[in-house]
Amino acid sequence: MEAMGKIDCHHHIIPQFQQEHSEAIKLPAGASIQAWSDEVSLAFLDKLNIDTGIISASPHGIIVAGSRNEVRTSVRKWNEYASALRAAHPERFGFFAALPDLSEDQDGVLEEIRYALDILKADGISLWTSYGGRYLGAKEFAPVFDALDRQRAVVHVHPIPPRDVPFFTTPFLPQPLIDFPHETTRTATDLVLSGRKRQYPNCKIILSHGGGTLPYLSDRLSALSNNLFSGILHENSPRGDQIVEDLKSFYIDLALSGSPNILDCLLKWAPHHHILWGSDFPHATAEAEHFDSTLENYEMDSQLRKMCYRDNALALFPRLRSNSH
Fold first, then answer.
1. Is 323 exposed, middle or buried (0-12, 13-18, 19+ CB in 10 A)?
2. Are 272 and 304 contacting, i.e. CB atoms less than 8 angstroms apart?
3. What is the pLDDT along the chain (325 residues), one digit of tens a residue?
4. Strands 50-57 and 275-276, sheet pairing
5. 286 burial class (0-12, 13-18, 19+ CB within 10 angstroms)?
């Protein structure tokens, strides 16, 4: 098969200034900060034939303890670092800008959205699945989505541990194994059933890791929401087939999701023009290489592969079209 330059929509970086201050980062027991440098990222891009990586903050690299001003400073420093890295390698990197905590500093969030998109010209915005124990459909976060919708922003949503739940739910179950995909499903469902997804159609939202468990559970949650739990819906909630329609309106990255079992389900469920390639580098580098290999060997027509590897991303990130070949 002829090599095809990919666009990696799920590529983390952990700058040295965060590695040096790792004690300020809320690391769960059993997790660690991976050594990272721009050279390490570039080598990974070359190894997996990736033209461009759209970088985002590590869940363990930007969630810092401290005052409101300290968090704002940390987020701004990361965004300016990412902007400088993209400027140094404009064909190899784009970036999703980081934000302060939506539940604790909404003024800071709105200012950082403005600065990141208007001044730094970020390629998009990165959000976590929850803030302060609330998922993204919470009414308190509506002003944030209003701002993102006005900017027609691309938003990458990455799972983090739910509030007050230990990183290891049992000695054999660290949260990334099972809970992270479920957190993605929870926040996506919250966005849909709250009516937020339909309310802000210009905000293009990417879900991580094959969309969590949405492809598998969407019919179940739609049926139960329409019948057994219809009382949870309100006047702005979608009804009937609109629920599945709204769930399918998300974009989905393939980070750690290139196995035949996942792809069989995902490709039957998701609109093909909404599927994006992703790695989850550097937290799961060996695993990313494994799933890239299984994806390469998965039977798929060349046009669909080209869509998933790059063309769908080019539609979301017009800046990269000049780099396309």
1. middle
2. yes
3. 456 799 999 999 999 887 765 545 555 555 566 778 999 999 999 999 999 999 999 876 555 567 899 889 989 999 999 999 999 999 999 999 999 999 999 999 999 999 999 999 999 999 999 999 999 999 999 999 999 999 999 999 999 988 788 888 888 888 888 899 999 999 999 999 999 999 999 999 999 999 999 999 999 999 998 887 888 888 889 988 899 999 999 999 999 999 999 999 999 999 999 999 999 999 889 999 999 999 999 999 999 999 999 999 999 999 998 765 5
4. unpaired
5. exposed
